[in-house]
Write a structure and sequence with these properties.
The protein is mainly α. Helices cover 64% and strands 8% of the residues. The chain has a three-stranded antiparallel sheet with strand order 1-3-2. Strand 2 and strand 3 form a beta hairpin. The longest helix is centred in the middle third of the chain and has 24 residues. The relative contact order is 0.08. The model has no long low-confidence stretch (mean pLDDT 81).
């Protein structure tokens, strides 16, 4: 059996655990993945321009506008003109948005703390290196080819 098939089968078999824990059900009913990611961007930077949301999520302005429109209508975000440059529209969270996002962040933090407490320091470092490598591989797949340069081979790491 191929290694990628084993990983794929593992993810499919555990899909519910990884992506749909019961605690997420309420969030899943209220937010799309992209809306939740937009909230994460706004939470991280406080007040953001529409173009910052586009850049962070790698989406076109029309998609970003639709997402923000829905979030404003639901009462989670609000728009206003920038004090610095009145031509720029900035987006920030409402109190309701902060409350909902705090719930999401606390839930996610709880999961991460459980995972972290179950791992040794060596396992944490290995996990970080694996995630870093996964991100590098995914990002290199998106980058255009550079004159015949080959990507560095990915070493197989056996995990008990």
């Amino acid at each position: 059996m191929k290694a990628n098939s084993v990983l794929y089968d593992f993810l499919v078999d555990n899909l519910k655990t990884f992506f749909f824990p019961e605690d997420w059900l309420e969030l899943d009913l209220n937010f799309s993945k992209t809306e939740l990611m937009a909230l994460m961007v706004v939470d991280r930077y406080g007040e953001v321009s529409m173009s910052q949301i586009c850049d962070a999520l790698n989406i076109p302005m029309s998609t970003s506008t639709g997402i923000v429109d829905r979030m404003v209508k639901k009462g989670f975000l609000h728009r206003e003109r920038s004090d610095i440059d009145r031509r720029v529209v900035v987006v920030a969270m409402t109190e309701r948005g902060r409350e909902v996002f705090r719930y999401f962040r606390d839930m996610l933090t709880g999961y991460l703390e459980q995972i972290e407490s179950a791992l040794t320091e060596e396992e944490k470092q290995l996990l970080y290196r694996i995630f870093t490598k996964i991100i590098a591989v995914i990002n290199s797949e998106k980058e255009p080819e550079h004159g015949g340069e080959e990507a560095a081979p990915v070493n197989k790491i056996d995990i008990e």
